[in-house]
Design goal:
- By secondary structure, the chain is an alpha+beta fold.
- The chain folds into two domains: 248 residues, P-loop containing nucleotide triphosphate hydrolases (Rossmann fold); 128 residues, Coagulation Factor XIII, Chain A, domain 1.
- The longest helix is centred in the middle third of the chain and has 18 residues.
Length: 423
């Protein structure tokens, strides 16, 4: 039986500012007199949304800003009531939504732990039992009796996250709270979420703009678009749809002058950048495992000496995948003013299917000063079937399995087991 049932859920809001008291009276008078009153337009944050979540499922909810993600979570947590439709939740909920919102600035951290815990449904006895664990996890022992108004924003959120995740609930509703604190604390948050999900079997609904977290943590994903369910199913497939939709939005508004991290000395301009297929035609769709060519067209405004070109691929969320420079393969002692076409051939492109972007840079002189550098210059898609041996990641390795006897192997099975057990 489903632990969460959402049935034709709709939530509407009126757009525009609140009317003044005078305007409200005038409108009421007009209605009483039977005269028409101009109504403010209504916006559907959620529009006829239906789905079910089974016990132990970890469901990622993704979508662009304004898609309805946070509104949906607030409905499930009982924070907001629907305009129409229904929500049934069978079990205790721990809502990690706007963590720290219930903190009182003049109270100490200790007092706020008890206050926040009681708001989230914990008894005083439960908080007493969990208190030391909460403080240790938040790394706040030194400051726990200091008023919260003297905490940094990161310290407040760390303490609030520790309280919220201490609740023994069947269902966790999480909205963008894994990116709290510094990197080390983010790692702790992620590990705790993995513990709740994988070892304690909690049912989790997770909203995040970090799509890689969704792919790693979730066994199902729902993509919302303009208040409706756009796609529901396997996280890899749903996240690929999200990347594709993002790519279309980015590409439609992108030009070379809108590149990210653009840095130029004014001596060189990038005036063309494209992939060339096997027929010599420009394309933005590359076949996985096939050869391809990247052609860069540059306009040199003043002659340059000792020129090196370089390019790299990155994901649409700027995770660098690879970089390749020209210095060992192409020696350019002098590049005169004018237009120049530079090509780089890639053999057996090993990057797995998906949407990626390209960065490009040029250096000059013996000190390799930057003449031009830009990221997010060209979006492209790698497509095609991948071998069954490949599962996750970005690259397919040219690797081969074999069975070796203990005598043939340089490291026996027994020795390997011993090494794995050693610290």
């Amino acid at each position: 039986m489903a632990i969460i049932e959402v049935d034709h859920l709709t939530k509407e809001y009126r757009l525009g500012a609140l009317h003044s008291f005078k305007q409200t009276l005038l409108n009421a008078t007009a209605r009483f007199a039977g005269k028409p009153v101009a109504e403010r337009p209504r916006f559907k944050a959620l529009d006829d949304v239906s789905f079910q979540v089974e016990q132990g499922e970890v469901v990622g909810i993704i979508g662009h800003n304004g898609a309805g993600k946070s509104t949906l979570l607030k409905m499930l947590a009982g924070v907001t009531q629907p305009t129409s439709g229904s929500v049934r939740v069978d079990g205790r909920i721990a809502p990690l939504i706007e963590v720290g919102a219930g903190f009182v600035p003049d109270f100490t951290g200790r007092e706020n732990v008890y206050l926040n815990g009681s708001i989230l449904g914990l008894s005083k006895k439960e908080i007493d039992r969990k208190f030391d664990e909460i403080v240790d996890f938040a790394e706040m022992a030194q400051f726990i009796d200091t008023p919260v108004k003297r905490y940094s924003s990161g310290m407040q959120v760390k303490l609030a996250f520790a309280v919220a995740t201490s609740i023994d609930a069947e269902i966790l509703i999480v909205d963008e709270v894994l990116a709290v604190g510094d990197l080390a604390f983010q790692r702790k948050c992620f590990d705790r979420m993995e513990d709740l999900i994988k070892r304690r079997g909690k049912t989790v609904l997770l909203v995040s703009h970090n799509i890689r977290q969704i792919q790693r943590l979730c066994n199902r994903a729902i993509m919302l678009d303009k208040g409706r369910i756009y796609r529901d199913g396997n996280p890899e497939a749903v996240c690929t749809s999200f990347y594709a939709q993002s790519d279309e939005k980015i590409s439609s508004a992108m030009s070379l002058t809108q590149a990210r991290g653009l840095n130029t000395s004014g001596e060189l301009e990038l005036i063309g950048l494209r992939f060339i297929d096997r027929d010599g035609k420009p394309t933005d769709r590359i076949s996985y495992g096939r050869d391809c060519v990247i052609r860069f067209t540059v306009k040199v405004l003043t002659g340059l000496d000792e020129v090196t070109f370089g390019f790299g691929f990155h994901t649409t969320d700027f995770l660098y995948l690879t970089t390749h420079n020209s210095e060992e393969q192409l020696r350019i002692a002098h590049l005169p003013a004018g237009d120049h076409f530079i090509e780089c051939k890639i053999a057996n492109l090993p990057i797995l299917p998906g949407v990626y972007s390209l960065r490009f840079g040029v250096t000059a002189g013996t000190a390799a000063r930057t003449v031009f550098y830009g990221e997010n210059l060209l979006h492209f898609r790698i497509q095609g079937d991948i071998p069954i041996t490949v599962r996750d990641g970005f690259f397919a390795l040219d690797a081969h399995w074999a069975v070796a006897s203990a005598e043939e192997s340089p490291l026996s099975v027994v020795t390997m087991a011993q090494r794995l057990k050693s610290p």
